[in-house]
């Protein structure tokens, strides 16, 4: 049997780069990483595997039909794991069309190419990586399960919900072998410093204000990125065709409590006075349409694929903080001009 060639889109981003590295380590597949290298994608995230004999990197856009056709024709792609996306809610509020372009049009362009070249071969799998945000916002109680109705509320979650629907539609209409995973908030090394945890770490190091939106009472469920990619590995290999799997960390935190916990860890790691980082906390204008709470019922993936998160939030947060402190050159290299402009605008919101 010939070696499997797995196309991983968005493999130079945060989660994608951890997935590419895991697959090269654990599976004897050819991995083809396709990434546009937007502000969020960095080859440095793949430094240790860029020259791996089983790995090829292609810089390109998932909206580029001609490029996709060429890749499917020439590379004998056996499977797709699709992570490429615009991923930040605040940016989606500023520029929704970019999210429609990549997350919706890009996903459908990729599905079309796969359909055309795979010609109904049900062995070829299309795994779409999505978010719990498609389910909307919860009150104080309850959790999203795989049967929860979609109710996206931000331009980001709307674009991801739309892409999920297209993936299901391609499975149902054309018989493609699709599977979807919907995960809660990830954290860990290599996350672009616009998301809550790395943004706060970076600001603490630089003695900048820590912008907490509103009262900071919104709740997110946090998952260590390596636990997520382990779950993706299982869903890709063993998930039922046409099904979806919710993936969560069982770690619900109010933003303000999380920021305080991080401040304590950072003061210790930086040898600063207790309370020093917390004194930087600044409540800023709330995010428009800010979802109150996300929580995941991950009992299906536990029962069917025997997966549950391994990393405790306390240890994961410490490991993340340490990684950023030890990799300040990574941080500097991703803070290019375009991001700095955005970063400045975030400051002006204060
Ligand atoms: P990220 O923003 O760190 O990385 C996205 C990657 O996609 C980048 O490398 C970027 O260059 C690439 N990309 C963007 N537009 C592209 C295009 N048009 N063509 C090719 N490549 C393009 O995102 P992430 O946090 O790693 O998230 C990866 C996936 O997981 C996304 O689909 C996201 O919706 C989903 N997800 C993320 C989280 C989270 O907490 N970060 C949680 C659940 C699901
Ligand atoms: P974020 O990391 O952007 O992920 P998402 O919006 O996809 O959940 O934000 C996590 C939570 O932190 C969210 O409730 C918004 C809040 N937040 C802040 O309070 N301040 C910030 O500077 C950022 C980026 C987020």
Tell me the CATH superfamily of the domain at 5-188 and 224-250 and 293-311 and 339-348. Answer: NAD(P)-binding Rossmann-like Domain
Give me the oligomer status: single chain
Query: What is the CATH C level class of the domain at 5-188 and 224-250 and 293-311 and 339-348, in words?
Result: Alpha Beta
Largest sheet, spatial ordering of strands: 3-2-1-4-5-6-10
Q: Structural class of the helix and strand makeup? A: alpha/beta
CATH topology label of the domain at 5-188 and 224-250 and 293-311 and 339-348: Rossmann fold
SSE order, as H and E? Answer: EHEEHEHHEHEEHEEHEEHEHHHH
Strand content: 15-25%
Largest sheet: 7 strands, parallel
CATH architecture descriptor of the domain at 5-188 and 224-250 and 293-311 and 339-348: 3-Layer(aba) Sandwich
Q: Count the DSSP helices.
A: 12
Q: What small molecules accompany the polymer chains? A: nicotinamide-adenine-dinucleotide, thymidine-5'-diphosphate
Low-confidence stretches: none
Overview of the molecule:
With 350 residues, the chain is an alpha/beta fold. It has twelve helices and twelve strands. The strands form three sheets. The protein has a seven-stranded parallel sheet, with helices on both faces. A three-stranded mixed sheet has the order 7-9-11. A two-stranded parallel sheet has the order 8-12. Strand 1, helix 1 (14-26) and strand 2 form a beta-alpha-beta unit. Helix 1 crosses helix 7 (225-238), helix 4 packs parallel to helix 5 (155-174) and helix 6 packs across helix 10 (313-326). The longest helix is centred in the first third of the chain and has 23 residues, at 96-118. It binds nicotinamide-adenine-dinucleotide (NAD) and thymidine-5'-diphosphate.
